[in-house]
């Protein structure tokens, strides 16, 4: 199996030096021979190396750097003066070396190196890569998307062509047509299946039409059945907007509240509450720490809180907070429970019958595009002239359609909900979740928390976890690890909500097994 990664170990750097020698001393007489059989690039400590391995053997590599001057600058002057305009739209980097062992020059390795280079450059803000391409491989470089931008330079024995590669040029090249299949383990956006995507391609209809009123009525009805709440209010926006509308309702209450958090999204609720100047206490647990029932019981018993606000599914840690326990305590002490269920709704069966107000969204586990924010309540919400009209839930009560909705998105949402009312969506997610749990049992991963739910897991950080995620991305497996709060903690997440998860997981396991074996032997 061929696969890519960033070179990081002394073993890998030694193998790169051997390949450099074979290519740029023995094959292309660019440098003088030496008895070590190794050639270390002059800019080695500035280079980033992308390598391709055949199982555990390093068979190809490409190095690049962005520190000026480039070697090409010294040969032809500042390259910006000669580059086409479309190559100057971002940072520039220079590909220093591109080498593949002779027995693996079947095109595939070159294409993999180019794809990895393009992906890495794009994600890190580079607009183009320049290279001194050997004239003997000019055809191959052109197939990879490189184009000459100056006359050849060098000696007759080692002549090179200044060439440039951009994302757009790569996509139009022969290599760009042989794209690697990509698999997403992101918690959103969700890739759309045909039945979910089809309504989005329809001709739009008015949100005042009978057809639309019937569709939105069906959506409300399904949401109320699935949630156990009496009323579902539909706004056009994200889960954050749903939470904003929920928190705005708390301004109508006279008493102070308690906000309980143990992750990024609970803390976001607390920040939103501060913006609304809500009088509240903040019970803050460490990220991934369970709510303490005895402590919460004691606080509610001794204080006169009117409401409690929490995140149910805490996406940042993969923790499912104990809604039933909190509901029970709130019922005992006559506290109105308000909960962010944006990530938990649609993952498993639970009831909102005893909550005061809760939120969800059309994306995430439900499986269509984000864009419809849902606020559930078990009481009729009257209009409040003190609130901005768009987030005043009273405007949405009694099946009102106060503002414009895209009919196509509403129909897509309606189709997605059919997977619950007429299908086995809950069972499907549970089956997928068990596959992740089995991976933990087998020792492949350690979860940050065992109190999870069928939507996402957070892998407990170790020194190699982020490197693994980087390598996975180069091989077409996109794990969730680039959010700021994840980077700060070295966490990596795997979500199960994408429609092709089962195929993706089997392929990822095969790659990960090879990756683990390689690290065990070579690192």
TrEMBL record:
One Gene Ontology MF term: acyltransferase activity, transferring groups other than amino-acyl groups
Keyword rRNA-binding included in the entry's annotation: no
Listed name of the protein: Acetyltransferase
Domain of life of the native organism: Bacteria
Record-annotated N-acetyltransferase domain positions: 4-168
Pfam families reported in the protein's UniProt record: Acetyltransf_5 (PF13444), Aminotran_5 (PF00266)
Alphabetical UniProt keywords: Aminotransferase, Pyridoxal phosphate, Transferase
Co-factor(s): pyridoxal 5'-phosphate
